[in-house]
Amino acid sequence: MNIPMEKLLKRFESYVKFDTQSDENSETYPSTEKQKELSKHLFQELKELGLSEVEINEYGYVFGTLPANLDHQSKDKIPTIGFIAHVDTSPEVSGANVKPVRHKNYQGGEIVLPADKNQVLKPETDPELKNCLGNDIITSDGTTLLGADNKAGIAEIVTAIEYLKNNKDLKYGKIRVAFTVDEEVGQGTKYFDLKKFGAKYAYTIDGETAGEIEDETFCADTVTVSINGVNMHPGYAKNKLVNAVKIASHFISQFPKDSMSPETTEKREGYIHVHVINGGVEKTVIKFLIRDFTEEGLKEKEKYLNGLLNNVMKNYPKATADFQVEESYRNMKYVLDKYPNVVNYAMEAVERSGLKPHKNLIRGGTDGSRLSFQGLPTPNVFTGGHNFHSKREWISLQHMGKAVETIVHIAQVWAEKGDQ
To answer: How far apart are the first and last CA of the chain?
Structure first.
């Protein structure tokens, strides 16, 4: 498949220069207005590519349609398929003034990022580099993240749609494209109109290693613990003041040092993550991210956390504490197992692209998590990127090309086999 690699790279580089960092503390939607600048650009680009039903709404979502090129009888049998990516980048690392750097024909060894010599890619810490010998590696200059999460996915979708449109001999059913906002702050589908989107199945192009199809995510909740102390002038506080900050410190100190946290878990292990702490003597609020691949595991961790809090609070009878649980998302595998073709067709598409397909799980979530439970089964497809949310983020240009091929093949597999 003759993917226009230079055009793919140029497209990607143009997207990462938009600062689209989202903000988890914002009360607006999207959380930052600057995300809409890339949305507007994509809206115009889809129109120029000749897609139909191209629209951008007040929230910054962009939709577009590549009409089926099948005969009328076949069109009715082939479900509408969607491809989705998000425009925002992580709040954790700056996405302003991104300067992409192309390291051509990688031959092994370290890659030192030019503007910050402390940012170094090493095969020892980035083992996937060993599978990229001869490839062109794209990084930032080391002062920002790159933005491959998820602008690589956007570039791959747009390039695949353009390829399908320009190659009339390839057969495909109706394809819908969507670009969302605020995925990185867990709000990517908050106002996503499934009925208007109109796809029966979809794929987020938001994964990492080439060849991977991800059909599992964490189940996720957020726990907010509010500790209420007793404030008092510190000069006259003896036997009166109860310091909520100290209680919070006592509470957090009770956590195990070598288990149950993000930095001590991997693979299918869940965790309790102390995420944010704010407050003062009178009131201190702690937020925890609770993650597990099963709902049962999630509830066990919340029960453990609540028990730990209750035991600590016994030492402070004049203080009170509030424990609140808010659901974030659930493991999309609960839904996807009911629609095996969605994943199986993606696996076949990877194989047709010349890669060895393999399923993997996401130690996190995607737009596909919520969309699946809202009625749109949506597994995740690789982009070729690595070290997301980091100044050491990188992606292989050749693996981006394989992602484009995979998207094209997904469309073809559905056209050939239909919704069996």
So the answer is: 27
Report the C-alpha gap between 17 and 289 in whole angstroms.
31
Q: What angle do CA 45, 60, 408 make, to 5 degrees?
A: 45
Domain 5-217+331-417 falls in which CATH fold?
Aminopeptidase (3.40.630)
Q: Do the beta carbons of residue 155 and residue 6 sit within 8 Å?
A: no
Q: How far is CA 36 from CA 31, 57, 61, 71, in A?
A: 10, 10, 8, 37
Which residues lie across from 226 on neighbouring strands? 285, 322
Is the preceding omega at residue 30 within 30 degrees of 0, hence cis? Answer: yes
- How do the domains of the chain map onto residue ranges? 5-217+331-417, 219-328
- In tens digits, the chain (420 residues) has pLDDT values of 899 999 999 999 999 999 999 998 899 999 999 999 999 999 999 999 999 999 999 999 999 999 999 876 677 789 999 999 999 999 999 999 999 999 999 999 999 999 999 999 999 999 999 999 999 999 999 999 999 999 999 999 999 999 999 998 999 999 999 999 999 998 999 999 999 999 999 999 999 999 999 999 999 999 999 999 999 999 999 999 999 999 999 999 999 999 999 999 999 999 999 989 999 999 999 999 999 999 999 999 999 999 999 999 999 999 999 999 999 889 999 999 999 999 999 999 999 999 999 999 999 888 999 999 999 999 999 999 999 999 999 999 999 999 999 999 999 999 999 987
Which residue, 99, 116, 137, is CA-closest to 16?
Answer: 99
Q: Which residues of 188-198 are buried (b: 16+ CB within 10 A; e: fewer)?
A: bbebbeeeebe
CA of 354: how far to CAs of 6, 343, 351, in Å? 20, 17, 5
Among the listed residues 173, 153, 203, 218, the one whose alpha carbon sits nearest the alpha carbon of residue 419: 173
- Where does 88-209 have alpha helices with state H? 148-166, 194-197
Active site residues per annotation:
88, 183
Q: Quote the CA–CA distance of 152 and 384 in Å, as a whole number.
A: 8
Helix (H) or strand (E) holding 336: helix 333-336
Distance CA 366, CA 218 (A): 10
110 C-beta neighbours (distance < 10 Å), count: 12
Q: For domain 219-328, is the CATH number 3.30.2010.10? A: no
